[in-house]
């Protein structure tokens, strides 16, 4: 059986999932998809994927990919009513790219093993723009033989690099640590940008200096347009970031690793979420990008931000 003859399934057509799955379709793989809101899967069907009516319709695929918001969501699509494993059939390998707690992943792995299925944790680093630029990367853990089977598929949507770190839940630990750093970096980047801006430095000029120097990164570059022009088009929500900071802090407490910077970042983020909750349009504000906490931090600094209307490179341009 050739690689393209493998039957693949995909659950989760959010900002990340739809872009990742699209690369598998473009590569010619036989892909069937399910999403709770069917309309979100229809654009991919127009490009060659097949939409199924319920998760259990994917029980007989060779490899099933999932990317959902929480561990509870993942447990539901696996084992809930009409879940993938609600019947007698099971995919040979299940690959999950969600960001969930280590203990949730341990329990799911145990239940899947009892059904004779291998479980691969394959969280990723990036967002939909990074995927489009073909710069997404992934960290993977689970049985090595199963990883080697699915590695070509993962490399299709994560061509920047796939790092196998061992068995079990080690990839979950790496992803939680990754998102903790994401939160800490954006909070500090906002702090120093506001400081320079309040003292008279245009934000676009300050961020150009940072991005051209040793402290610049793919992340600081592609978040710079948002901080300069106040474009809060969603890549990741404040509440999802808070969830991941909490996961990191829980691991720190469990393993006696002090994480004071993470704790401080979490409280700054909570100020932003609290402010959003006090507004009549709170749901809409909380659906915007996590970098919008720059406006909350500016207000605490006695500033009111306005777009600088500058054409700022993202660093993702081909």
- Count, helices: 13
Which structural class fits the helix and strand makeup?
alpha/beta
Largest sheet: 6 strands, parallel
Radius of gyration: 20 Å
Quick tags:
12% strand, 6-stranded parallel sheet, 2 domains, alpha/beta, 13 helices, 318 residues, Rossmann fold, 3-stranded mixed sheet
Structure notes:
The chain has 318 residues and is an alpha/beta fold. It has two domains: 3-168, NAD(P)-binding Rossmann-like Domain (Rossmann fold, 3-Layer(aba) Sandwich); 173-300, N-(1-d-carboxylethyl)-l-norvaline Dehydrogenase, domain 2. It contains 13 helices and nine strands. The chain has helices at residues 15-26, 42-45, 71-79, 102-114, 128-132, 144-157, 170-198, 203-212, 218-229, 238-254, 260-277, 282-286, 293-300; strands at 7-11, 30-34, 50-51, 63-66, 93-96, 118-121, 124-125, 137-141, 161-166. Strands 3-2-1-4-5-6 form a six-stranded parallel sheet, with helices on both faces. Strands 7-8-9 form a three-stranded mixed sheet. Helix 7 crosses helix 11 (260-277) and helix 8 runs antiparallel to helix 9 (218-229). The protein is globular, with a radius of gyration of 20 Å. The protein starts with 6 loop residues before the first strand and ends in an 18-residue tail after the last helix.
């Amino acid at each position: 059986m050739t690689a393209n003859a493998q039957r693949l399934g995909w659950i989760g057509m959010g900002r990340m999932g739809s872009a990742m799955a699209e690369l598998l379709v473009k590569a010619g793989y036989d892909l069937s998809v399910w999403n709770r809101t069917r309309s979100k899967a229809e654009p991919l069907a127009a490009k060659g994927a097949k939409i199924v009516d319920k998760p259990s319709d994917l029980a007989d695929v060779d490899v099933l990919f999932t990317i959902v918001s929480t561990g509870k969501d993942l447990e539901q699509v696996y084992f809930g009513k009409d879940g993938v494993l609600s019947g007698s059939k099971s995919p040979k390998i299940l690959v999950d790219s969600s960001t969930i707690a280590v203990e949730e992943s341990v329990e799911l792995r145990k239940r899947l093993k009892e059904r004779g299925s291998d479980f691969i944790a394959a969280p990723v680093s990036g967002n939909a723009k990074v995927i489009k630029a073909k710069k997404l990367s992934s960290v993977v853990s689970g049985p090595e033989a199963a990883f080697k089977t699915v590695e070509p598929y993962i490399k299709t949507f994560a061509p920047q690099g796939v790092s196998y770190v061992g068995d079990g839940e080690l990839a979950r630990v790496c992803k939680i640590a990754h998102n903790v750093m994401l939160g800490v970096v954006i909070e500090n980047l906002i702090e120093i940008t506001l400081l320079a801006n309040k003292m008279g430095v245009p934000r676009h000029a300050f961020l150009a200096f940072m991005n051209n120097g040793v402290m610049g990164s793919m992340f600081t570059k592609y978040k710079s347009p948002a901080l300069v022009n106040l474009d809060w088009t969603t890549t990741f929500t404040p509440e999802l970031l808070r969830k991941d900071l909490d996961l990191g802090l829980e691991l720190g407490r469990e393993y006696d690793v002090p994480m004071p910077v993470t704790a401080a970042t979490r409280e700054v983020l909570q100020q932003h979420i609290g402010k959003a909750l006090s507004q009549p349009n709170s749901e809409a504000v909380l659906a915007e990008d996590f970098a919008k906490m720059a406006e909350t931090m500016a207000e605490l600094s006695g500033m009111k931000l306005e777009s600088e209307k500058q054409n700022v490179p993202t660093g993702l341009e081909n």
